[in-house]
Design brief:
The chain contains eight helices and no strands. The chain is mainly alpha-helical.
Length: 227
């Protein structure tokens, strides 16, 4: 009896929803970023008032609790500093090339990190927002305030690294640990900048939004153009 031929199982293709999801996320985050940028640029009174109220309250706490302030200074200057984040990304890029010969992904990681730096520096120069000024400052920072470079850089780096871990299918313990570290770091670096009185809250929010948008765009680009 003749048996019908059995086709080999089809090769798994790219997830059909992955690219639209990343693009839609980038669109929503981009629109939110633009809206916040316009409000900051126009010095919208409710936003400026809220920024001032939160900043004055946290500055009082920072002055009254020097131990917590010192911990925040160490975390923001050494652990979550943008230079530390970029060095982390460079180390991961080297590891990708050394262990997996993943030149394209390593270059994608480095280029995205560099693009984040260019975006935040360009917006700082364009917006020119003044940082908070205090009679009794607990820390200091240079350049313009909006957006927070610390918040943007940490969001980009941890977002990309989390996606790479998820893509390579790490175990549940490693994944939960990585997510916890990323959430604490991205949220923590923003809060330390507000606590130390060197950024307005909307500066940090802008850094988070822009960083998340860049991560979504980078993921979409990786899924679309990776050889």
């Amino acid at each position: 009896m003749h048996n019908p031929p059995v086709d080999s199982p089809p090769r798994p293709g790219p997830h059909p929803r992955a690219l639209p999801t990343a693009v839609c996320s980038a669109l929503v985050l981009g629109l939110s970023s633009v809206l916040l940028l316009v409000l900051v640029w126009a010095e919208w009174h409710p936003l400026i008032s809220l920024d001032g109220d939160i900043s004055r309250a946290t500055h009082r706490w920072a002055v009254a609790d020097p131990d917590v302030t010192q911990v925040c200074r160490i975390l923001t200057d050494w652990v979550w500093d943008p230079l530390t984040m970029r060095l982390l990304g460079a180390a991961v890029a080297v590891w990708l090339v050394w262990r997996h010969a993943a030149w394209w992904t390593a270059g994608w990681l480095v280029v995205t990190s560099a693009l984040g730096t260019l975006i935040q520096q360009g917006l700082k120069a364009a917006v020119g927002r003044a940082r908070p000024v205090w009679p009794d400052p607990v820390d200091s920072a240079h350049y313009a305030a909006y957006p927070s470079g610390h918040a943007l850089t940490a969001t980009v780096m941890f977002g990309l690294l989390l996606w790479l871990l998820h893509r390579h299918g790490v175990g549940p313990v490693v994944w939960r640990t990585a997510v916890a570290v990323a959430v604490v770091s991205v949220a923590g670096v923003g809060l330390t900048r507000i606590w130390l009185g060197v950024h307005w809250p909307s500066d940090v929010l802008g850094g988070w939004l822009l960083g998340s948008m860049l991560v979504a765009l980078a993921i979409a680009a990786h899924q679309r153009w990776r050889p």
